[in-house]
């Protein structure tokens, strides 16, 4: 049984168990559900067991945990959050000469001085996918999800779900108001996006915290349209639920990527951190990641070996549309987005 299949029933259990002890010489702070067997094949072959995992539900929780003193060797932030780890002085550069598959990482995922500068490479991208419109194909006509206007459509009042995620809701709001990047956003553009989110808020049945919650909301019929990651949609399809995933609405969709940072003063063995990242980026990890959780591996060479039908089934095949990339943002702007979103959710 895959991680995707158990998303509908097992995520709460995964989140309730904060750590799984295995190899005590490497601790990984990771997303719930990421202790996937096929990703650690070479690590286990060399070290005898998987690392010790401690799980988190979102990037804010992970950063707060590390910045509050939790000792871990590696953490798995998404790209937009890497800057916070650097600014707080929590991480150190990777030695890419010890990572053979580094040369096969998509260059677009390293195109930021936050990830790579004269001091070294601070972030190793490993996975990516999309955020777009999930919808009940039985009750929602395809033409209704041809535009992000579906989220403000009074027809779906109380039947909408948005992620309880700063990055995801703001990428949606900016796209919906004609902004395709959050670099150099003006005050007027920010206000327009905030006003749009406020107009959507009365339609929202729930802000989902993880893909399992989103999938449950759709499976019960409470929600007909959601701004969703692709794994929740794949989980619903595995359950034969009538769900579609519109990744090409008129205004565009969002794309994100995540990876690993190397913590300073880590408690484990440094060489095992490299065993871990090399196992994660191994070509054999591409099908394991796709089958296990529905994401694409950042190793472009490995992804070229995956059959096209498998990519389409997981909704990670290339998209011909405007894509809003959730790249790093300055801390001040992130704080502004967080505070505004919290006010909107509270009804202000």
TrEMBL record:
Record's keyword annotation contains Membrane: no
Question: Which Pfam families does its entry note?
Answer: SBP_bac_8
Q: Would I find Transport among this entry's keywords?
A: yes
Q: Which GO terms describe its biological process?
A: polyamine transport
GO molecular function ontology, one term from the record:
polyamine binding
The compartments listed are: Periplasm
The residue range of the signal peptide is 1-21
Segments passing through the bilayer = none
InterPro entries attached to this UniProt entry: SBP (IPR006059), Sperm_putr-bd (IPR001188)
Q: Which UniProt keywords apply?
A: Periplasm, Signal, Transport
Q: Name one GO cellular component term.
A: periplasmic space
Tell me, in one coarse class, where this protein mainly resides: periplasm
This chain belongs to the protein called Polyamine ABC transporter substrate-binding protein
Organism of derivation: Gemmobacter lanyuensis
- What are the leading ranks of the lineage? Bacteria, Pseudomonadati, Pseudomonadota, Alphaproteobacteria, Rhodobacterales
């Amino acid at each position: 049984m895959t991680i995707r299949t158990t998303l509908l029933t097992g995520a709460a259990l995964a989140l309730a168990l904060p750590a799984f002890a295995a190899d005590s010489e490497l601790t990984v702070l990771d997303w719930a559900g990421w202790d996937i067997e096929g990703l650690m094949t070479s690590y286990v072959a060399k070290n005898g067991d998987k690392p010790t995992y401690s799980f988190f539900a979102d990037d804010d929780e992970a950063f707060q945990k590390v910045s509050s003193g939790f000792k871990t060797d590696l953490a798995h932030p998404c790209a937009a959050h890497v800057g916070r780890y650097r600014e707080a002085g929590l991480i150190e550069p990777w030695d890419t000469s010890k990572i053979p598959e580094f040369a096969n990482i998509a260059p677009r995922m390293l195109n930021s001085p936050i990830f790579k500068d004269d001091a070294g490479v601070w972030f190793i991208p490993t996975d990516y996918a999309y955020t777009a419109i999930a919808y009940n194909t039985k009750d929602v006509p395809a033409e209704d999800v041809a535009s992000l206007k579906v989220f403000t459509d009074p027809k779906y009042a109380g039947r909408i779900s948005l992620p309880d995620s700063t990055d995801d809701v703001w990428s949606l709001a900016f796209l919906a108001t004609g902004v395709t990047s959050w670099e150099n956003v003006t005050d007027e553009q920010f206000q327009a996006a905030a006003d749009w989110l406020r107009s959507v808020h009365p339609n929202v049945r729930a802000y989902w915290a993880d893909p399992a919650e989103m999938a449950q909301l759709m499976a019960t019929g409470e929600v007909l349209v959601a701004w969703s990651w692709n794994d929740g949609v794949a989980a619903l399809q595995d359950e034969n639920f009538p769900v579609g995933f519109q990744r090409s609405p008129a205004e565009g969709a969002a794309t994100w990527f995540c990876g690993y940072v190397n913590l300073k003063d880590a408690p484990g063995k440094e060489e095992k951190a490299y065993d871990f990242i090399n196992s994660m980026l191994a070509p054999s990890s591409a099908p394991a990641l796709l089958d296990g959780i529905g994401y694409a591996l950042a190793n472009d060479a490995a992804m070229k070996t995956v059959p096209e039908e498998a990519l389409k089934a997981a909704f990670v095949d290339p998209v011909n549309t405007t894509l809003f990339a959730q790249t790093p943002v300055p801390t001040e702007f992130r704080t502004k987005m967080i505070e505004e979103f919290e006010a909107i959710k509270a009804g202000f």
